[in-house]
Design brief:
- With 616 residues, the chain is mainly beta.
- 10% of the residues lie in helices and 30% in strands.
- The strands form twelve sheets. The chain has a five-stranded antiparallel beta sheet, with no helix packed on it. Strands 27-32-30-31-33 form a five-stranded antiparallel beta sheet, with helices on one face. The protein has a four-stranded antiparallel beta sheet with strand order 1-6-4-5, with no helix packed on it.
- The radius of gyration is 31 Å and the shape is globular.
């Protein structure tokens, strides 16, 4: 849905009318801290994105605003359908430390286990796992004064902090505020671990050498005793396996020849000839992308990864790092957990039910190649060759699976039916396209559905499955809805030389009624020669046709009335019939500087029937 994406990490996003469902920090530079569940930007914007500019439909551009100023302008112009929000897609990677002054720092936490042990009240950081992204930051002994995401909690003891860290696992953008240790700080409270059992006991103090050997605390270098050898990382690792067990693949220039899905990006297909072919497997997830200049992208979504790969395609020595393949499951037993299921080619031996999304897995044959544990779960997404289908009922899931039965690498994500995390297609969204071909192929049926994208298409990667083209808006105010596919194709061709906005709707909604909205007035400077148009109307001339070679194509619309014609050196002509307008324009076709003013037709948008039509 992103209209323009510069070299990562910037994005320009067209905003629909109405509330956008974003919450910003109350700071001089607004930063997104939350995206509501019903936000039309939920699949596009993520916490941590920083405000750059806001462009309104009238061309006004706002930069360097506070959060309150931004919120006020967004509220004042809530009906503006041509607003564009530019965001900097910088999200601090886990382990990023910001100095707050007076001995306080802010630390970005990973979404997964943080690998820290806490002690005391208020909670103090006692130790950090060597393989934690927070290792080596010098936080040990520091007092945790806050943990925050969309909420802020203060003054927690070790047990409370461990519980909060567990409960917020999976949330991006969590941060700790830590008062760094001083020489006066000391304590010997019982440890609490972020990877302890649910009771908080059973791992009370397995790592304190003072208990076991009486050695001084300063010798506490590796409390989890997980050296590279202990962790199962051989000393003679391959050139593509780094010290953390991740797999590094050096990328050549050009296309990668692979498809990804999800966040973090999971490899769902490797095409023949890809540089990944010999080193990684389908299902492995991307940890990072490192550019030759040392720039490193972490914690990316698929769209961010694809954009970063494209923008750096001309560079050698890029390093794409993958996590070891430990299975494609997010099943932690909670109601919001998920399972990614690889669908083999051929029959699957499953059936689905549900007239409304999401479809649920109803029956499974004993010899089904799919895991039996997914029976009764509901389908969240279905990914085929990089195209993600979502918000599907039973018939839609079945149709897609049957249609793609010979395609390898398909992935179906299923969730607990009570989950609140099912992906949904935005009810309605807009995409503004530049002059020139759209680059898509539409199906013959109505409503108008995109069947395929041509190379270089302006809509590639912006239109998800499950939506249709509801209406077309021109930059001059013209709008048409309720079109057949043929009418939509014809109008797009007619408007080929101007900026157009395409409005898509979820296929769960009814199409807009058939209607046409015209610009109130259009003033045309007419070229010399034949204009290639026809008029109709005994009393008031209206445009009845614009021929293929017309010089007015894309500049005026059928059914608009001629208000006046100005000929240099003559009075202004008004109230012309079709015959009179055609004759006047034909007689003056060699005259330069003619001006024609056209106005919108009657409110019903229906042209006058009858009368003569004369071609110029």
């Amino acid at each position: 849905f992103i209209e323009d994406r510069e070299m990562a990490p910037h994005a320009t996003i067209p905003l629909p009318q109405g509330a956008i469902g974003l919450a910003f920090t109350d700071e001089d530079v607004p930063v997104v801290i939350d995206v509501s569940n019903n936000s039309p930007l939920r699949s596009i914007v993520e916490p941590g994105y920083k405000f750059v500019s806001l462009t309104l439909g009238n061309g006004n551009v706002y930069e360097k605003m506070t959060s309150r100023e931004l919120a006020k302008i967004l509220a004042d112009d809530i009906a503006d359908s041509r607003r564009k929000l530019k965001l900097e897609m910088i999200r601090s990677s886990p382990g990023t430390v910001t100095q707050l002054g007076n001995g306080f720092v802010e630390v970005v936490l990973p979404e997964t286990e943080i690998g820290m042990a806490f002690v005391g009240k208020p909670a103090k950081i006692q130790a950090t796992k060597p393989n934690s992204p927070l290792a080596g930051l010098g936080l040990e002994g520091g007092v945790v004064t806050e943990i925050k995401w969309t909420q802020v909690l203060r003054g927690l003891d070790a047990v409370e902090l461990v519980d909060v860290v567990k409960d917020t696992t999976g949330i991006r953008g969590r941060k700790l505020v830590v008062r760094l240790a001083t020489d006066d700080d000391s304590g010997d409270d019982k440890l609490q671990y972020t990877n302890s059992d649910d009771s908080g006991h059973g791992l009370q103090d397995p790592m304190d050498p003072q208990e076991e050997s009486g050695e001084p605390q300063d010798d506490l270098q590796d409390p989890w005793n997980e050296s590279a050898d202990d962790a199962g990382i051989p000393e003679d690792t391959t050139p593509f396996e780094n010290d953390e067990g991740h797999i590094d693949v050096e990328l050549p220039q050009g296309k990668l020849g692979a498809a990804f899905s999800g966040s973090p990006p999971a490899l769902i297909k490797i095409y023949s000839g890809s540089p990944l072919e010999e080193f990684v497997d389908v299902g492995m997830k991307v940890y990072s992308l490192t550019l030759p200049d040392g720039t490193q992208y972490l914690d990316m979504s698929t769209i961010e990864l694809v954009n970063a790969l494209k923008s750096s395609a001309s560079q050698d020595e890029r390093i794409l790092t993958f996590l070891p393949d430990n299975g494609n499951t997010g099943d932690d037993g909670s109601e919001n957990s998920f399972v990614d299921v690889d669908l083999p080619v051929g029959k699957l031996g499953v059936s689905f039910r549900g007239r409304n999304p999401p479809a649920s897995i109803h029956k499974m044959q004993e010899d089904s190649p799919l895991p039996q544990k997914i029976k009764g779960m509901s389908v969240d997404t279905l990914n085929v060759e990089g195209e993600e289908h979502q918000q599907l009922n039973a018939k839609q899931v079945t149709d897609i699976i049957k249609r793609t039965t010979a395609i390898p690498g398909r992935v179906m994500r299923v969730r607990n039916p009570s989950s609140m995390n099912f992906k949904t297609v935005t009810d309605e969204f807009k995409i503004t396209i530049e002059p020139g071909p759209v680059g898509v192929t539409f199906g013959r049926e109505s409503p108008t559905i995109i069947k395929s994208f041509k190379e270089g298409s302006q809509l590639a990667g912006k239109v998800p499955p499950g939506v249709y083209l509801d209406r077309i808006e021109a930059a001059d105010g013209y709008m048409q809805s309720g079109m057949t596919t043929m009418e939509a194709v014809s109008l797009l061709g007619f408007l080929n030389d101007m900026t157009r906005t395409l409005v898509f709707r979820s296929n769960t909604l009814e199409p807009s009624p058939k209607s046409t909205v015209f610009p109130e007035k259009i003033v045309l400077k007419l070229p010399t020669g034949k204009l290639g148009c026809s008029f109709r109307g005994n009393k008031v001339a209206k445009f009845s046709r614009l021929h293929k070679e017309s010089k007015l194509k894309g500049k005026v619309y059928i059914n608009m009335k001629i208000e006046s014609i100005e000929i240099p050196g003559s009075p202004i002509f008004t109230g012309l019939s079709a015959f009179e307008a055609a004759k006047l324009l034909a007689d003056t076709k060699a005259t330069k500087g003619r001006i024609l003013t056209a106005v919108a037709p009657t409110s019903d948008g229906v042209s006058t029937v009858g009368g003569k039509s004369r071609r110029l």
